[in-house]
Amino acid sequence: MNKNDVVTPETIDDLEPKMKVSGKVLKTALAGAIVDLGIEEYGVIHISKISKDPITRVADVLDEGQEIDAWVYRVDPKESRLELTMLEPVDIEWNEIKPGMEYEGEVIRIEKYGAFVDVGAERPGLVHISEMAYGYVRKPTDVVKEGDTVDVRVLKVNRRKKQIKLSMKAMEVPPEEAVKEASSSSNDEPTPTVFEAAFRQAMDKNGGGGLDGLLNGKDA
After folding, report:
1. CATH number for position 48
2. What is the tens place of the pLDDT at every residue in 17-48?
3. Residues 116, 119, 123, CA angle at the centre, nearest 5°?
4. For the chain, how many structural domains are there in total?
5. What pTM did the predictor assign?
6. Cα–Cα distances in angstroms (integers) from residue 69 to residues 6, 19, 37, 154, in the given order
């Protein structure tokens, strides 16, 4: 299911965090709004989950009777508790990101020191210019431009500062490894052993007289 597909639940048990739902605002208050999703339990949206921009009055943004789209923030069927948010949830939570993980992302901003890549987390990660490619990179735009899709690997995560360090070159084969692979694939004939080399030399001296000639000391 696409994250933007709207779910039509029959009961609260059908709901999970990050599911998109549609409902009607029943009541607005100082702390938030109550939303009817068409099931027994009503959903509650806290004022901080209504808009990315700070708001002081819920009624400035929502009207009673208004149809809205929202996402499930928290749900507890046993407690009949359903919290909603109008802020689209991120694909990747901070506690899910670990060094070594690999993602496909979009380059959304370029600075002199590197490029910021959106991998679906709350904030984009930084690919420092030194991690963009093997060898010297004069400027980030020599490698990427805004809107490019790139493969990256997580190097480090600072959850307190919400920073992600990424690498593009970690997804590439190191130059020395590429040379080794090219060299091994180009050698169709295996390298002879010392014994094989000596045997061939003796055969050449024997004038190609064959194994019997070599063993009997016969000249060609």
Report:
1. 2.40.50.140
2. 999 999 999 999 999 999 999 999 999 999 99
3. 60
4. 3
5. 0.58
6. 8, 11, 10, 33
